[in-house]
Every structure is written in C-alpha cells, then in structure tokens.
TrEMBL record:
Domain Tyr recombinase positions: 111-311
GO MF annotation, one: DNA binding
Signal peptide (residue range): none
Keywords, alphabetical: DNA integration, DNA recombination, DNA-binding
Origin superkingdom: Bacteria
Residues of the Core-binding (CB) domain: 1-90
Lineage per the UniProt record: Bacteria, Bacillati, Bacillota, Bacilli, Bacillales
Gene Ontology process terms (BP): DNA integration; DNA recombination
Protein name: Site-specific recombinase XerD
Pfam annotation, one family: Phage_int_SAM_1
Gene3D superfamilies, per the entry: 1.10.150.130, Intergrase catalytic core (1.10.443.10)
C-alpha cells in the first residue's frame, strides 16, 4: 500500500468527519512522524517493517517515552493521532494497544502549568510593548503588529476567547460604538462579548495600524486579524491569521517575555477561567458564557481556584 496515497485519503476521511483544518494537519503530521521513525529504525536495525505496522507500536512507544524529547502531553497527542489513523485503516488490535498506552501516559498537571500570576501577566505585556529580543527586520515593522499581538493576548487572558474565535472574527462583527464583539466558535456556537472601553479602543487602534492601501472597510465580512508579510513589510490584504500562526506568535511572545514555554493559548484561557472562579462566578455561568456543553471541563479548575483563594 502506497503510504502517501493513503495519507491523502486519510485527510479526506477526517474532512468528512468535519475535523478542523488544524486538527487534520496535526493528525497527518503525527502519522508521518511515525512513518519516519519506522524508516529510520529499519535502516538502523536492518529489519524491514511490514504494513500495517502494528508490531512496531511497542518499540515506538518506548522510543517516545525514553527519548526525553517528548512531554506526556505531546506523547498523548501523538498516540491519539495514531489511534485515529488505525481506526481509519480498520486495525482494531492497534487501536486497543494505543488506548492502553494513552491510559498509561498520565498528564501530571499543576496550577503552575496553566495559571499566569499577575506579575507574569505584567511581565508579558511589558515585553509586548518592547523590542527586546527582536531582529533588526522584526524591529523595522514592529509598530505595525504590536497592537495586533497585544489585542490577541488581551482577548484570551481577559475574556477567555479561543483561538478559533479569534481566527474567525470578522470586521463586520465588531461594533466599536456599542463595544460589542460577535464571536463564533466550534460547531458554529456564537456568543457576544461586551468589552471594556480601553480594550475596544485598542481594537480600533489595531485596525487603524493596517496601512490604508490594504485596510479593509470597517463593515466588510473579512478577517479582523490579518496575516503580516515581512517580505513586503505590510499586511496581506483580506488574508486572515491561521490558528497555527496565532499559536506560533503566542509561543514566540511567551519566550521573548522570559516566561515558561508551557504557557500556551490554552493556559492563557484557563487563567481567565481561574480568575472568574476566584471572583465567585459559578461554573454554570461560565459554561454558558464560554459555550461549553457541560461544566466538566471546569471541575479541575474549580479545585485550583479554591487553592488560589486561600493564598
């Protein structure tokens, strides 16, 4: 069986399952990672591997755990992708093996993994306002993207906005006069945010930093967060930031601020949730506000919020 052809069919299979483009990209990347390991292992041992590559799973799992290059979270992500792959090629034995490995690979999370303390948030925004750690080329155009990056962090940290909500936000859904923003998340769920005056001003300032030749009309149904082209030194006309690009920007700014690299977009959002819980907001209220289907994702955070209150 030709692997590359099968990968293309796998992508179509995921698309028909209505997986997000970023999820499809991640699944195929992790399956390719396994295929690359099989090739390297075969060359090193001189032992050829045979389709559908089930017998090699124990060795691969040992490699992931023993290499020191992969965190438990990353290992679980890879195992989940492989489980979906083996479901697709109809190999139930492999699926059972991978489910066992997933149970074995426990994620040991602590409050420090998902919560930015007030001093760390201040450190982050001070860094966003500075040019520290930037290349000369990045410094040259920093004034054009500084506001955009800051608004992204503010919306996640202070309003609990998801990356998908950010990348699907269109200009005609931002009502500067009433300070309201209409968001659309996964499964088409919508919600309306009312922003503080200072934050809506920052959003307008962000919009106005887009050079006039490529600046869209305020009432156009085009992405609000535009991708930046460093080669041309301007924004890409009507080309929105992708989820991958937002995640990459967040990682870069977190590193530049000197904060731990495990502070991802998810950690920023959980920081918002923890702040709300410590202020006394109920899980049920947050479930409705953030468009969760149940309160289950908030259970662990509620326990941590009680710990924060006692500090």
């Amino acid at each position: 069986m030709h692997f590359e052809n099968e990968i293309q069919k796998f992508k179509l299979y995921l698309l028909l399952e209505k997986k997000q483009p970023s999820t499809i990209k991640r699944y195929t990347y992790d399956v390719q990672l396994y295929k690359d390991w099989l090739k390297n292992d075969s060359e090193a041992t001189g032992v050829p591997h045979c389709w559908p590559y089930i017998n090699e799973l124990p060795s691969y799992y040992s490699y992931l755990r023993g290499s020191g290059s992969y965190s438990p979270n990353t290992i679980r992500r890879i195992l989940s992708a492989l489980r979906k792959w083996f479901q697709y090629i109809q190999q139930p034995d492999a699926v059972c093996i991978l489910e066992h490995y997933l149970k074995e690979t426990k994620v040991c999370r602590t409050l420090d993994d998902v919560y930015l303390a007030p001093n760390q948030i201040k450190q982050l925004f001070n860094s966003l306002a500075s040019n520290r750690g930037l290349t000369e080329k990045q410094k040259k155009y920093r004034h054009l993207i500084r506001d955009r990056n800051e608004v992204i962090f503010r919306l996640i940290l202070f309003y609990g906005v998801t990356i998908q909500e950010l990348t699907t936000l269109h200009l005609n859904r931002i009502h500067f006069a009433s300070k309201e923003v209409e968001l659309t998340g996964r499964k088409g769920k919508s919600r309306i945010l009312t922003l503080h005056a200072n934050d809506i001003k920052k959003m307008y300032a962000c919009y106005m930093t887009i050079p006039e030749p490529v600046r869209p009309n305020r009432y156009d149904a085009v992405p609000y967060f535009l991708a930046f082209n460093y080669q041309l030194g301007t924004y890409r006309e009507n080309k929105g930031l992708s989820e991958v690009a937002v995640q990459k920007m967040i990682r870069h700014e977190i590193k530049r601020a000197g904060l731990p690299k495990h502070f991802t977009a998810q950690a920023l959002r959980k920081t918002y949730i923890l702040h709300q819980l410590t202020k006394g907001k109920k899980k049920e209220t947050l479930r409705d506000e953030l468009a969760f289907e149940t309160t289950q994702p908030l259970d662990e955070l509620e326990k941590w919020a009680k710990g924060l209150k006692s500090l």
